[in-house]
Amino acid sequence: MYKDLSVYIHIPFCVKKCNYCDFVSAPPEPGQLKAYADALCKEIKLSAAYADNFNIKTVFIGGGTPSLYDSSVMTYILDTLKSTFENRRRGSYIPEEVTIECNPGTLDRNKLSDYKRAGINRLSIGLQSADDKELKLLGRIHTYEDWEKSMKLARECGFNNINTDIISGLLGQTVESFEDTLKKVLAYSPEHISVYSLIVEEGTPFYETYAPEKLSKEEADKWEEEDRLIYEMTNRVLSKYGYDRYEISNYAKKGCESRHNMVYWRRGNYLGLGISAASLINDVRFANTDSFSEYIAAPYGSIKSKEVLTEDEKMSESAFLALRTSYGISCKKFYDDFGKDIHEIYAEAIKKWTESGMLIERDGRIFCSEKGINICNMIMADFVL
């Protein structure tokens, strides 16, 4: 029996690290681009041992800024992945969705045409804001006009499945200013829109200014309230324009949900390739080193952590990840997977949140209500065993 497998490929390079970013990414030093591509392809060739009896169904190339690479290098990486899995006796390479993250200002017509030929059929073009002042604050290298040009060019090159990322919750951002960004994005009708609320992470330039302890209680409360209002407005506006919120931060036109990301929320099998990339295969979780030198020296031997998940961990993940989505938890699937009635495992949590109206149980599913989705993180915490 073949199983489906999703593959994530991490490209750790960018033109300039954004002020809010805590991912493993940085501008490349001389020689690093080639060295990394070679090491990545070496890992790909050796990784098939992890993925016997799997059909590759989705591929996501993230970063960093993968579109920083010349398109010939990206073609080389994807060709290596394809040939590696096609040459095995079992399983196959038949992706339905191949996504690459791109930043405005790093795309041109030739690159996009090469992406199409290489099998890429979905783009994720990061905007973050349509306000150039906010883009400068975020440390982005592009303007809103650059994003417009990238969207037009992508359409001209035949891409009909495009996501754009937006960040909400900037200090000083208002419902009105964020709605202006939404309207400008909607004018280009992307098939998918991701709206992420800003998280101020330690170790980033933003943390030096916006760390919670550096704000007064009044400032923090006002910031939190404005972000909540923006979140509610976003759902109203995007629903009006035909986008369904199928996950906490993700909206899509019908049939355009990210197949790759759904694998994470459904606890499917995924293989992470590249520096710091994480994997989950047959309930074993492992992750690569975040040291560039270690990865280059031994890309296949650079796993820094590995754990076999316990039954409680598997049930917890199955429950709280499903609650992130509009579909929620399938009671039947939970029983089929674990041989246990979810109402016995999570009796208190289900009772608490359904009685408060934050969870709804209907048609064999348990899912967040419109009010519940706003406090989903609190609800999910009660489903951790």
Task: Report on this structure.
This protein has 385 residues and is an alpha/beta fold. It folds into two domains: 262 residues, pyruvate-formate lyase- activating enzyme, CATH 3.80.30.20; 71 residues, Orthogonal Bundle (Arc Repressor Mutant, subunit A), CATH 1.10.10. Helix content is 41%, strand content 23%. The chain contains 16 helices and 15 strands. A nine-stranded mixed β-sheet has the order 7-8-6-5-4-3-2-1-9, with helices on both faces. It has a three-stranded antiparallel β-sheet with strand order 10-11-12, with no helix packed on it. Strands 13-15-14 form a three-stranded antiparallel β-sheet. Strand 14 and strand 15 form a beta hairpin. The longest helix is centred in the middle third of the chain and has 24 residues. The radius of gyration is 21 Å and the shape is globular. The mean pLDDT is 92.
Provide a quick synopsis of the model:
The chain is α/β, with parallel strands linked by helices and 385 residues long. Helix content is 41%, strand content 23%. The strands form 3 sheets. A 9-stranded mixed β-sheet has the order 7-8-6-5-4-3-2-1-9, sandwiched between helices. A 3-stranded antiparallel β-sheet has the order 10-11-12, with no helix packed on it.
Question: What count of structural domains?
Answer: 2
Query: Which fold name is given in CATH as the topology of the largest domain?
Result: pyruvate-formate lyase- activating enzyme
> Sheet with the most strands?
9 strands, mixed
Q: Given the structure, what is the number of helices?
A: 16
Strand order of the largest sheet: 7-8-6-5-4-3-2-1-9
Shape: globular
| Strands, total number | 15
Helix content: 40-55%
The CATH homologous superfamily of the largest domain is termed: tm_1862 like domain
pLDDT < 50 runs, ≥5 residues: none
